[in-house]
Amino acid sequence: MNQQLAGYAPTPVAARMENHGRAMLKVAMASGQELFARTGSMVAYEGFIQYEPNPPAIRQLASQWVTGEGAPLMKCSGDGLLYLADYGADVVVINLDNDAISVNGTNLLACDAHLQFGVERVKGLAKFTGQGLWNVQIGGTGWVALTSRGTPVVVDCGRGEDETYVDPDALVAWSPTLKVKGKRSFKASSLIGRGSGEAYQMAFSGQGIVVVQPSEDSTDRLRARG
């Protein structure tokens, strides 16, 4: 191999899911370990891997999704190495250990198919958005990969008494154990939240983490259920 390209070669497998660079996910596929991945995210694979778009489990879940909240997923199965990406977005890999995380549907890149997941209402925001906001909660023991438009910051909300405030359009994921409420800003509203269209933020408190991306998604990911 050309020495100039040697540094980009595949690395030995160290885990079920891991980063290959900043913006690519490498998944070690094996028989019986099926994967749900964002449709169209496959950029390369080695071995024998099959793809099933819109599998029954996803069709059932999709009936609860509202436009802008969910993401079309495919089921991947087989043996080999699978590489996934989403238009150059940063990839964040999480290994759940009998735990759960609440994720914006458009930030979900892949997850183990045996994990439990479903749509949940984000409590505490109905009075700000009319009918509330909805997210996808994933729980159990297994691997999850998220995307972020730029290098994210992971805020530990348990370090102090102060609440953590986030623009909804910059939110990637959070611990479902956190308490969530809305806060409307009446003063200087034009300076807060360029992408939200409204001057309100999500306030988090309790023990857990919040993942925030440095780019406000303009697709209105957190949409009121209508």
UniProtKB/TrEMBL annotation:
Name of the protein: AIM24 family protein
* Lineage, top ranks: Bacteria, Bacillati, Actinomycetota, Actinomycetes, Kitasatosporales
